[in-house]
Write a structure and sequence with these properties.
Helix content: 10-25%
Number of strands: 22
CATH topology of one domain: Elongation Factor Tu (Ef-tu), domain 3
Radius of gyration: 40 Å
Distance between the termini: 27 Å
Amino acid sequence: MTPRLLFVSIVLLGACKNASPGGAGGPGGGGPPPMPVDVMVAQGDTVIETIPATGQIEAVQSIELRPEVEGRVVAFLAQEGREIEKGGAIIKVDDAELTAQVARAAAERDLASQALARTRQLMTQNASSTADLERAEATARSAQAQLDLLQIRLDRTTVRAPFAGVVGQRLVSIGDFVNSGSRLVTLHTVNPQRAAFRVPERYGERLARGQRVGFQVASLPGQEFFGTVDFVDPVVQLPGRTILIKAVVPNPRRQLEPGMFIEAHLVTEVRPNAVVVPEDAVIALQGATFAWVVVDGKADRRTVVIGQRSPGYVELLSGVKAGEQVIVGGQERIGPGSPVMPSVVNRDTTTAERP
């Protein structure tokens, strides 16, 4: 209501009084009749404050496997796209040469062990010196160490999964000669996954580990996923001045795959006893924000502070209490203290998203 309309209403009201002292207000000039208004009850509700963001799904762990020994690829022991347990065999590198070296090292170890046994026997007969015994012991240990080293290299001709996951793209073929720098195959974790996104640095003080994240995936319409923040980047990234956030997301049905685009909402605060009113109950005029409340049959103007907004509803941080009747229609016909005739409006709120 503009000041001009308010002024006209007052003049007309005064004119009516002068023309008919006992008319509009009833016999004896009892005041203006109550004005009909539409009201709704301010609701106590849970308000969830969120930060919108976009990002993508990432694997918690994702690596390219490389061999630890050189040789030719002779077999693929796991298919692309298949899940594999930790320690499962994926690729086999030719081990013929190492097998022969292990056999030779085992024979040398046996000879060193026999020599040590003879030296100890001679020591009991005072036919050998302490130095001879020490040399025999050192030779035996060296032979065993060489055998252990070759056995480790032989075991490593089988490339195994360092963690449970899904075998990704194969990057070599059978017969390729590979060394420690060759990429063999990719491996990714599948459950859980990670949701990664960035938020503007102005929200930095509201970010913390353990916060809840809800998001939707473009390729999976109609489904909502939830995760928990486990990483907040302590460095603001340039040039956008954003902060990287990562959240762990359960993925038991294997629906989430690395690279999927997501639209996320990071929950920064939950207020379980917030006051929520329809947005048309709040009026902004000349730099002030207020709402009309029905108190004892009269209109009471309250200055309010707005919190979260959502389609159709507004959170009020102060000025109105839950359970009070707020006027949502007919505000242009009333002033402070005006008698009103409230009519409760029932609206379908099932499709309205609360803050």
